[in-house]
Specification:
Layout (H helix, E strand, L loop, with lengths): L3 H12 L4 E4 L6 H7 L6 E4 L3 H15 L3 E5 L3 H4 L2 H10 L3 E7 L25 E4 L6 H17 L8 E6 L22 E4 L6 H7 L4 E5 L7 H14 L2 E3 L11 E2 L1 H7 L12 E5 L5 H9 L5 E5 L12 E6 L2 H8 L9 H12 L9 H11 L5 E4 L3 H6 L9 E3 L10 H10 L5 E6 H6 L13 E7 L31 H6 L3 E5 L2 H11 L7 E6 L2 H22 L1
Parallel strand pairs: 1-2, 1-3, 3-4, 4-6, 5-6, 7-13, 8-9, 8-11, 9-10, 11-12, 12-13, 14-15, 14-16, 16-17, 17-19, 18-19
C-alpha cells in the first residue's frame, strides 16, 4: 500500500478530534482528499488559494477552540501557507499544515513541482515532520512514533501549529486509484502532565498487574525520592531492573546484566510484565533488545520530565511529563490488589544466576576490585567492558557510580572522571581499558588532578570488545584496524607526570598490589594490569553460556 501513511494520519486526526479540514485543489493530495471528503467524521471546506486557506483555517481554530487541519499539494502551494502558519505560530493557534510531496529521492533532480518542503516551516512550527514511505513494520513504527510526537506537541508547553509532509511515490495516474484502508490498529501514545485530569484511571490499570520498573543509568534521585519510590514498588510488588550505574538499591531490584543475558525468546514470556515503567537516562542495550523483540507482550509507560517520547521498546503507550516524585504522589496512596509471585520469580532468577570459575582476565580483575573498593568512594566505569562486567557484582550503596554511557564514546571517560574526582573529597577510582586510556592519555596532564585519583588500567593490547563476538575468528584481520592491537605501556607517561605507577601481569601479583591500590595513600596511583586479549574475550563468552545453562536448570 503506497499511501498507507495517509490512513495512519487520518487515524491521528480522529484521535485528536480534528473535525474541520480546509482543502486546496491539487494532484498530490488526491489520495488524502478522496478519503476524507466522504468520511462523515470530517467537515471539509474548499479554499483554492493556499494563503487564504491557511488564514481561514486559523480563524476556524480560534473560534472553535479546537485544532484545524489544512491540506495542499506540492511545490509553491506549500510556500503559500507560510504567512498563515507564521501568524498561527505567534498567535498560539493549533493549526495542522498537511503538505503532500513527490519522492524525496528526486529532490534537486529537475523534477517538476519538487521543492524542499521541509525547510519552509522550520522556525514557525512546534513540530516539523516528514512521514516515511512505508515498506515494512519498522517504517510503520517510525510513522506512528513521529505522529504521536507531533500531535502531542500541539498543546505541549504552549499551543501552536505543526507541519506534516507526506511524500508519495508513483505516477500521477496511480494517485487516482482507490486505496484500501489499513486493517492494523494504530498505536496511540497517551500524554499525561501536571495538568492532566485523568490520573485516577491509572490506578485501575495498575491494579492486579505485573509491573516491571526499568531505571536509567546515572539516576539522580534524592534519598527522600528513593524512599518514596521504594514505597510504591513495595505496594505493587514490582520488580526493578537497575544496574549499579543507576545508584539505586532496593530489596525488589534484580541485576539486569545477569538476568537479561540469560533470557531468550523461549523463556522471556515467563518473566514479561503487563506494564514496563521507565525512568532516567539510557538503558542497557540488552534490556532494549530483549523487550523490543517481545514488544507485543506488554505496555510501556515512560516518566520523562522533558515530555519527549522515548519508545525504546517499541511498545510505548503512555508518556508522563512530570517528575518521578509527582508520578509517585498520584498513585502511591492506593491499595493495589497484587501478589508477590512475579517478584519471587525474578528474585529467584537473580539469586541463582552466579558467575563462577573465572581465569585471570579483565573479568576476574573487576570481580576482585569490586570486592575491595572502599565504601563512600566514587567509581567511574569506562564504557564497554568495564561498564558491562562490573554489573555482575554488587557494590555498596555508598559508592557513587558513573559512566559516559549516553553518547557512548571512549574519548572522554578519563577527563570526565578527573573532573568528578576533583569535585569529590573521597577516594576516586576509574576502571578503564587500554584503548580508552591511551585515546585520552593527555588528560593526565591536566594540572587539577588531586591525590585521591586511582586509575585501574586493564591493558590487553587491543579492543577486547571485538573478541566477544562469537564469530570474530572468521575475520583474520580483526586486530589490525578494528581491534587496533598495540604494544603501548603507560609507565613512562605516568611517571613523567610525577604520578605513582604500579603494574601486574598475573593473579597473585595483582591481588597483592590491589590492597595497596585501594588504600588511602597520599599520591595519585595508576595501576596497569596486563591480560591476554583472547582470554578476556573468551571468558565473557563462556560466562554468558554458563548463565544460559543455569537458567535452563532453574526452569
Amino acid at each position: 500500500m503506497p499511501y498507507i501513511s495517509n490512513d495512519i494520519l487520518i487515524g491521528f486526526l480522529k484521535k485528536y478530534n480534528v473535525h474541520k479540514l480546509v482543502l486546496s485543489s491539487g494532484t498530490r493530495n488526491i489520495p488524502f482528499v478522496s478519503s476524507v471528503e466522504v468520511d462523515k467524521w470530517f467537515e471539509c471546506f474548499s479554499v483554492v488559494d493556499e494563503r487564504n486557506a491557511a488564514f481561514f483555517g486559523m480563524g476556524l481554530a480560534q473560534q472553535s477552540n479546537e485544532p484545524v487541519a489544512i491540506a495542499c499539494t506540492s511545490g509553491t502551494a506549500v510556500s503559500n501557507y507560510v504567512t498563515g502558519v507564521t501568524e498561527a505560530y505567534y498567535s498560539h493557534v493549533p493549526l495542522i499544515a498537511i503538505t503532500f510531496d513527490r519522492s524525496p529521492y528526486v529532490l534537486n533532480q529537475l523534477e517538476t513541482q519538487k521543492i524542499d518542503q521541509m525547510t519552509v516551516f522550520d522556525s514557525i512550527t512546534k513540530a516539523n515532520i516528514e512521514l516515511p514511505m512505508i515498506k515494512d513494520e519498522e517504517d510503520t513504527w517510525y510513522c506512528e512514533r513521529i505522529l504521536n510526537e507531533a500531535f502531542i506537541s500541539i498543546r505541549q508547553h504552549d499551543v501552536g501549529p505543526i507541519h506534516i509532509n507526506i511524500p508519495l511515490v508513483g505516477s500521477t495516474n496511480d494517485l487516482w486509484k482507490k486505496q484500501e484502508s489499513i486493517s492494523e490498529s494504530i498505536k496511540f501514545i497517551e500524554y499525561y502532565s501536571y495538568e492532566t485530569d485523568n490520573w485516577e484511571l491509572l490506578k485501575n490499570e495498575l491494579d492486579g498487574k505485573r509491573v516491571l520498573f526499568v531505571l536509567g543509568q546515572n539516576c539522580t534521585l534524592t534519598e527522600v525520592e528513593k524512599a518514596h519510590f521504594n514505597e510504591l514498588i513495595y505496594k505493587l510488588n514490582a520488580v526493578v531492573l537497575c544496574d549499579n550505574l543507576t545508584n539505586f538499591h532496593s530489596k525488589n531490584s534484580a541485576n539486569p546484566e545477569k538476568t537479561i543475558k540469560a533470557l531468550d525468546g523461549n523463556t522471556i514470556k515467563d518473566y514479561m510484565p503487563d506494564i514496563i515503567i521507565t525512568y532516567g537516562a539510557n538503558f542497557q542495550e540488552r534490556i532494549k533488545d530483549l523487550f523490543k523483540a517481545n514488544e507485543r507482550l506488554c505496555a510501556h509507560w515512560s516518566i520523562a520530565e522533558d515530555g519527549k517520547i522515548k519508545d525504546c521498546f517499541r511498545s510505548q503507550t503512555k508518556i508522563f511529563e512530570c517528575s518521578l516524585k509527582y508520578f509517585i504522589s498520584r498513585v502511591v496512596g492506593v491499595e493495589f490488589r497484587t501478589d508477590d509471585e512475579y517478584l519471587k520469580k525474578w528474585k529467584k532468577l537473580d539469586r541463582q544466576l552466579q558467575v563462577t570459575e573465572l581465569p585471570f582476565s579483565n573479568f576476574s580483575i573487576i570481580r576482585d576490585f569490586a570486592n575491595v573498593i572502599p565504601n563512600d568512594s566514587l567509581l567511574h566505569l569506562s564504557i564497554l567492558n568495564a561498564t558491562r562486567l562490573m554489573q555482575f557484582f554488587d557494590l555498596d550503596k555508598s559508592i557513587r557510580v558513573y559512566s559516559n554511557v549516553n553518547s557512548f564514546g571512549i574519548d572522554g571517560c578519563l577527563p570526565t572522571f578527573l573532573g568528578q574526582a576533583y569535585a569529590f573529597d573521597g577516594l576516586s577510582f576509574i576502571v578503564t581499558g587500554d584503548l580508552s586510556f591511551f585515546y585520552a592519555m593527555n588528560a593526565m596532564g591536566i594540572k587539577h588532578i588531586k591525590n585521591n585519583v586511582r586509575v585501574l588500567l586493564i591493558n590487553n593490547g587491543g579492543g577486547a570488545e571485538f573478541h566477544i563476538v562469537p564469530s570474530h575468528n572468521e575475520l583474520k584481520t580483526i586486530d589490525l584496524h578494528i581491534g587496533a592491537a598495540h604494544h603501548q605501556v603507560a609507565k613512562g607517561w605516568v611517571e613523567s607526570l610525577g604520578f605513582e605507577y604500579i603494574s601486574a601481569n598475573n593473579e597473585v601479583d595483582f591481588r597483592e598490589k590491589l590492597k595497596y591500590f585501594v588504600s588511602d595513600n597520599a599520591k595519585t596511583i595508576v595501576f596497569e594490569v596486563f591480560t591476554d586479549l583472547e582470554t578476556d574475550g573468551q571468558t565473557v563468552l563462556k560466562t554468558y553460556r554458563k548463565l544460559e545453562k543455569q537458567l535452563r536448570d532453574i526452569k
